[in-house]
Design goal:
Number of domains of chain B: 2
Structural class of chain B: alpha+beta
CATH superfamily of chain A: P-loop containing nucleotide triphosphate hydrolases
Strand order of the largest sheet of chain B: 6-7-5-8-4-3-10-1-11
Structural class of chain A: alpha/beta
Radius of gyration of chain A: 18 Å
Oligomer: heterodimer
Shape of chain A: globular
Order of helices and strands of chain B: HHEHEHEEHHEHEEEHEEHEHHHHH
Number of helices of chain B: 14
Order of helices and strands of chain A: EEEHEEHEHHHEHEHEEH
Largest sheet of chain B: 9 strands, mixed
Number of strands of chain B: 11
Distance between the termini of chain B: 26 Å
Helix content of chain A: 25-40%
Helix content of chain B: 55-70%
Largest sheet of chain A: 6 strands, mixed
Radius of gyration of chain B: 31 Å
Shape of chain B: elongated
Number of strands of chain A: 10
Chain lengths: ~240, ~400
């Protein structure tokens, strides 16, 4: 279970205080597939990074299971991310000088797994995303779709309990987008949790729970409302 | 994949930053190694020259001139022997050995000779052991350019080196005397009414020592019936300390005596050594400044261009420690390679150009390799420490926004 308890995030911009996320309380149960939608600048990504233990809130607490994430030491929080969380980014964020195989091995290196285990597990995951023949390619030698599949393999290699995805399909062609979302659905079916921030209604419609963020305020939205033609265009916001 | 692979691959990805840092460290270390190498051999050459000169400080009775001393020590004036003990236990920095002497006229096989009483080093050491005195242990400054005597064997010239063992019934013959009288080791010679055994014939030195006979100081005192006195105390002092006030310290300690030094020689040679020493320090400061700034600068740039990568690594679970190690390891590699290349280049310069310019044969000093590599790694790591900490303290979320 993940819980935001009156969490808010403010930034100081010169003399002005900017609210990126108004005080928000939210509970995400284990096994949920949550999509967060909303216009740009509404605080979706901020909320995701807060949930993922990557950005300390100005107010409130973020609970991951029974642990208050930001009461943990930095290294302990890193350990929670390493062992229990996975991240998928819109821009993939692959390490440019490592091959696809090595990029997938990095989380295992951080866990201290032996080389042989790293190699075998990375091959298994690359095979799962259909890129076993691209293992020795660097990110620049891969298409955007292939890069996102490598990023997905890197996310899954640690067998996380929760995936946080920030616009995971934003840069992808329809086929790869579908491929990625299918992975998420499969991951969800396996009882894992997914929190996905997206602009895209089709992507959001694959989730089991929909949240809309507007003006820093979060609320649950029924699926039919989100997909209704009058309420949102094809892309929920730009 | 292991940690090293990650570091090496990043270095290969961005080689220019590495090359710049490496070049700076290599040149700095090379300059330092070359100067230290030449300075070391120059100091040794100085030490050799001073050793060849014999003692560089003399304690003489008040009123005795240096000329009197060199004209065969027969000035007739004496000082109490207890001054030797006073000096021996004073632990003055820079005093490496003492050689008290008493010269008296004598006859050997109807020839007029000078019988010189000397005190073997074994007696000093024995006394030092009794009283736990730190006798003749050269201080730090002397280790690099010792003006110390040689091995102190019985065959050594007593005025140029110390004699380790000499028993009360033994005599040492100077080369000329031995040749003139035909005496050899094991012969018995009669001196001042007492028979002594020739324990060694000293090699020719081309000095007044060749015409002398040496015996134990206490034997000579007893035979000459002069009591516990000496004519002079020869001191082998560390050249730098001699130049830096040892003479004055000795004069203060021994009132009523005259302390003289071969100051001109010492001063000139020491000033050359000092120049080399100062140049070394100057280059060390330049090395630390230049290499440190270069490494710090390239590490800061590296952190900046890798922000997104740092954010990604943190997002997937890298600890701040891991992130800072990525940068510090790179700095260690640069430092290690820079130190190594610098040592090779510096030694080559010292051996080729250095030896030509100074006229002293120079060979590479292996110890400098360890110092160069260790020092360069230390400077490089210290310079990268702050940027590495900054990288570790980055907020992963901010890394993505900036990227």
């Amino acid at each position: 279970m993940i819980r935001l308890e009156a969490v808010a995030k403010h930034y100081r911009q010169e003399e002005r205080l900017v609210t990126a996320l108004a005080p928000t309380t939210l509970t995400i149960e284990s096994g949920e597939f949550v999509a967060v939608v909303g216009p740009s600048g509404s605080g979706k990504s901020t909320m995701l990074t807060l949930l993922g233990g990557m950005l300390a809130p100005t107010e409130g607490r973020v609970w991951f299971d029974d642990e208050s994430l930001y009461d943990l030491k930095v290294a302990e929080r890193a350990k929670v991310r390493r062992l229990k969380m996975g991240f998928v980014f819109q821009t993939f964020n692959l390490v440019p000088y490592l091959t696809a195989q090595e990029n997938v091995e990095v989380p295992l290196l951080l866990r201290g797994e032996p080389k042989a285990v790293q190699r075998a597990r990375a091959r298994e995951l690359l095979s799962l995303v259909g890129l076993e023949d691209r293992a020795s390619h660097k990110p620049t030698q891969l298409s955007t779709g292939q890069q996102q599949r490598v990023a997905l393999a890197r996310t899954l290699v640690n067998d996380p309990r929760v995936i946080f995805a920030d616009e995971p399909t934003g840069n992808l062609d329809p086929d790869t987008r579908n491929h990625v979302l299918s992975f998420f659905e499969e991951f969800h079916r396996a009882g894992k949790t997914i929190v996905m921030v997206t602009h895209e209604i089709q992507a959001a419609s694959r989730a089991t729970r929909l949240l809309r963020m507007a003006d820093g305020v979060l609320r649950d939205v029924p699926h039919d409302e989100a997909s209704a033609p009058h309420s949102e265009p094809r892309r929920l916001a730009s | 994949m292991n940690f090293t692979t990650l570091v090496w691959k990043e270095i290969r990805e961005r080689p220019m930053a590495m090359i710049t840092g490496l070049l700076t460290i290599t040149l700095g270390v090379a300059a330092l190694v070359a100067i230290r190498n030449v300075a070391f051999y120059s100091e040794r050459a100085v030490a050799r020259e001073l050793e060849a000169l014999g003692a560089n400080v003399l304690v003489l009775p008040q009123g005795v001139t240096l000329q009197d001393y060199y004209s065969a020590d027969l000035h007739g004036q004496t000082m109490p022997e207890e001054l030797v003990q006073q000096l021996a236990f004073s632990n003055l920095e820079g005093v490496e050995s003492l050689a008290p002497k008493l010269c008296v006229p004598a006859r050997l096989d109807e020839r007029g000779i000078i019988l010189t009483g000397i005190l073997p080093q074994s007696e000093f050491q024995a006394k030092a052991a009794w009283q736990s005195a730190n006798l003749f242990s050269p201080h730090k400054g002397c280790k690099k350019a010792r003006c110390s005597p040689g091995d102190g064997g019985a065959e050594s010239s007593p005025t140029q080196r110390t004699v380790q063992e000499l028993y009360q019934h033994e005599a040492l013959l100077g080369a000329d005397i031995a040749e003139a009288t035909g005496h050899k080791v094991g012969d018995k010679v009669k001196l001042l009414g007492e028979t002594l055994v020739v324990s060694a014939v000293l090699p020719s030195t081309g000095t007044v020592d060749d015409g002398r006979v040496f015996a134990h100081l206490h034997t000579v005192q007893r035979l000459a019936k002069v009591g516990e006195v000496v004519n002079c105390i020869e001191i082998m002092g560390c050249c730098e300390d001699v130049a830096e006030g040892l003479v004055q310290q000795l004069a203060d300690m021994l009132p009523g005596t005259k302390v003289v030094t071969i100051s001109q020689v010492v001063q000139t040679q020491v000033s050359v050594n000092r120049l080399m020493e100062r140049l070394s320090w100057l280059f060390l400061v330049i090395l630390i400044g230049m290499a440190g700034a270069s490494i710090a600068n390239s590490t800061i740039a590296n952190v900046r261009e890798r922000r997104r990568e740092i954010g990604t690594l943190m997002a997937i679970g890298a600890t701040p420690h891991f992130v800072s190690l990525l940068f510090l390891s790179k700095a260690v590699i640069v430092g290690c390679l820079g130190g190594l290349f610098g040592y090779v280049l510096g030694s080559t310069v010292a051996v080729t150009i250095g030896s030509q310019w100074t006229g002293i044969p120079v060979t590479p000093l292996p110890i400098l390799a360890a110092v160069a590599v260790g020092g360069a790694m230390l400077v490089s790591t210290a310079a990268a420490w702050w940027p590495a900490r900054c990288a570790a303290a980055l907020d992963p979320c901010m890394c993505f926004q900036d990227g």
